[in-house]
Design brief:
By secondary structure, the chain is α/β, with parallel strands linked by helices. The protein is built from 26 helices and 19 strands. Helix 23 links the parallel strand 16 and strand 17. The longest helix has 33 residues.
Length: 664
């Protein structure tokens, strides 16, 4: 069995349109062709090629040096002439004359297809459902099915979501599907058996990090046999998928290589120094040693800044000592340490917000916020790549349905975010109950919160995802509640593999806000459950109109960010409409009664009377938080008045809260 990575780029690749290269202003990849060849052979590749964008310069150089196991390849950028939708087609085994022809024909995908068919050139459509220039729609995918027979089954630069649904669709086509598509688009299929597709695999590696880790397998003794198997749809794809972390580090690597050819600020930056030690195998020189010492001198001084400097040094030190660690493990360790540094920067800002605002020190506030900005920049590449991967989620999820291909049924995946799960209040009890019911019924629902690990016990459902946090604070007038701020990058790493279809949010605190961000990044539907009217609550507890307005405006903004808001009653939807909320996306949040725990039957009444030594008669029960906003004074006053007339009327108050002692 022979294998080759059929999608790797060298420093000769001219690719200005690729989205991440645009971000840094670079138009080239910087991996040396000889390094590609040697690395590919070390990783077990039988044959080697380079598929640069619209160029074979690097391939020609390597073909001359290694004629026995290297063949010429390219990645041709072609277009649907009807709307300029851009498609990438990988082409193998071509010569210089054919390359010149391809450069002419590639401006029109139909002409290019006909030329490849005429010349019997081995080829493969790259990263099928990835929209190169934002114009790809279902019609283009249908046309590609007719135009070509060979596709990339695994593109190592994309995640599973961008690979597997498309590959599944291609593997499950039938003659009926092809006939319908041909009639719809009036396109002649590529072969006599166009419902049978062949597959290739390639790393799509622009930075030289993952070469040979995604590849194509075929039975062959030489290059000619290998290419024949690709043409005859007798090849298979194997290897790794990408993730948002590895794509972000690819960006770092390209930026670093670019900085070495330019005199720019990036080459002097902290990220450049980190990247140099992460990706360069040579021992650090005197210049870099001096740079590291500047970080080391801050170690152990006892303030926030020295903590960050110490973390910088530990990160540098770890990278330097672990040169031989596999790149995947190295990147994972690097990510975790960057997450901690980012948290430390964020902690500076949050501490300042809490302290400087209280003291009225706006100068100190602005200073600390500005000093925390580097922590935000550390996270941005990872957020960008995560959003990039999931922007095609709707296409991936619907491609098989669009083509009329049956897929195995799967349950809806839900993540339910809440800031409160341990406190005795309605939100906590509701979410915990939903968690238990989902777990016992086998539903794919997980509760997401953030609390000390030792707090979790047998009372909580097993489907709780507890996010690590780096900061906690109390709200004024709610001192018995602790709100926790999740560690952003660590939490993202923990959650993205769940790939939720919907995200529910029960609280507008830090965890709730994080839920909205996750929904945006993962392209999932977001639903906010309006459990509590915090504005009304503040009015009852604080009686401060300016604070009430601040809370009301925040809640309106929070609810405007989600796709749907669920409210307990229709009456409350009307109340919120009068207060200026957008009620067009509001629906009822329906509840139920567990008849195993609550019963109106006489046996239930007897148990209640015996437990609390109550006389015969009607018993009223209040279950909830003991707080002023619940208007318990009115309840007690009403009960006392009625009790005079109906002495057998009982009242039970069950709950906990800030006013429990005064109520007692």
């Amino acid at each position: 069995m022979a294998k080759a990575d059929l999608h790797v780029h060298s420093k000769f690749s001219n690719h200005p349109s690729e989205w991440f290269l645009q971000r840094i202003g670079a138009s080239e990849c910087y991996t040396d062709p000889e390094y590609i060849y040697q690395t590919a052979k070390k990783r077990g590749m039988s044959f080697v090629t380079i598929t640069d964008h619209n160029s074979i310069d690097g391939a020609l150089q390597m073909k001359e040096k290694h004629p026995e196991d290297f063949f010429i390849g390219m990645e041709a950028t072609t277009y649907f002439p009807e709307d300029e939708c851009k498609i990438h087609v990988l082409i193998y085994g071509l010569n210089e004359s054919e390359f010149s022809d391809i450069q002419k024909y590639r401006t029109n995908i139909y002409d290019l297809r006909d030329y490849l068919k005429e010349k019997n050139l081995a080829h493969s459509v790259a990263h099928g459902i990835y929209s190169v220039n934002g114009k790809l729609i279902f019609d283009h995918l249908e046309k590609l099915i007719l135009l070509f027979d060979i596709f990339e089954g695994i593109n190592g630069g994309r995640n599973k979501l961008n690979n597997q649904p498309w590959a599944y669709a291609l593997r499950n086509l039938t003659p009926v599907h092809i006939e319908k598509l041909a009639n719809k688009h009036d396109i002649e299929p590529f072969s006599s058996t166009p419902w049978i597709k062949g597959f290739t695999g390639g790393s799509d590696d622009h930075a030289g990090l993952f070469m040979g880790q995604t590849y194509t397998n075929a039975e062959a003794q030489n290059i000619f046999g290998f290419l024949d198997n690709i043409r005859n749809k007798q090849s298979t794809c194997e290897g790794r998928y990408s993730n948002y972390q590895s794509l972000a580090f690819t960006i770092y690597k390209i930026a670093f290589e670019f900085s070495k050819t330019k005199s720019d600020k990036f080459s002097q930056s902290f990220v450049s120094q980190l990247t140099e030690h992460l990706f360069e195998s040579s021992t650090k020189g005197l210049k870099n040693s001096l740079k590291l010492k500047t970080y080391k001198t801050f170690k152990g001084r006892g303030n926030g800044k020295s903590t960050i400097q110490e973390m910088y040094w530990d990160l540098f030190d770890n990278i330097t000592k672990n040169k031989e660690v596999p790149i995947e493990d190295k990147l994972d360790e690097f990510y975790d340490r960057l997450a901690l540094i980012s948290d430390e920067f964020s902690k500076i800002m949050l501490t300042s917000l809490e302290n400087n605002l209280y003291q009225g020190d706006f100068h100190g506030l602005l200073k600390n916020i500005s000093s925390s900005i580097p922590g935000i920049f550390l996270a941005i590449p990872f957020l960008s790549t995560l959003k990039h991967f999931y922007q095609s989620k709707n296409v991936a999820n619907n491609i098989n349905r669009q083509l009329g291909i049956e897929t195995p049924k799967k349950s809806k995946k839900i993540l339910w975010f809440t800031d409160t799960l341990t406190y005795m209040n309605g939100v906590s009890m509701t979410v915990r109950k939903i968690g238990w019911l989902s777990y016992l019924k086998g539903k794919d629902l997980n509760i997401v919160t953030s609390m000390p690990g030792e707090t979790l016990n047998h009372e909580f459902p097993p489907n709780v995802i507890n996010l690590p946090y780096f900061y906690e604070f109390k709200l004024p007038h709610y001192e018995h509640y602790l709100l926790r701020v999740p560690s952003f990058l660590q939490a993202i790493k923990k959650l993205y593999t769940y790939e939720p279809d919907e995200i529910y949010i029960s609280t507008p605190g830090p965890v709730g806000l994080f839920g909205i961000i996750v929904a945006r990044l993962l392209n999932a539907k977001s639903v906010c459950v309006f459990h509590t009217d915090f504005t009304k609550q503040a009015h009852e507890i604080i009686d401060d109109s300016s604070l009430e307005n601040l809370i009301e405006n925040y809640l309106k903004w929070f609810n405007s960010l989600v796709d749907e808001v669920q409210v307990p009653t229709n009456e409350y939807i009307n109340i919120l409409e009068l207060r200026g909320y957008d009620t067009s996306k509001m629906i009822l949040f329906r509840r139920g009664i567990d008849t195993l725990q609550f019963s109106h039957k006489k046996s239930g009444k007897k148990i209640l009377r015996d437990r609390y030594n109550l006389p015969e008669g009607i018993t009223l029960i209040y279950a909830g938080r003991i707080s002023k906003d619940k208007n318990l004074e009115f309840l007690i006053e009403t009960y006392n008045n009625i009790h005079i007339i109906y002495p057998d009327l009982n009242l039970i108050i069950a709950g906990d809260g800030p006013d429990l002692n005064s109520l007692k």
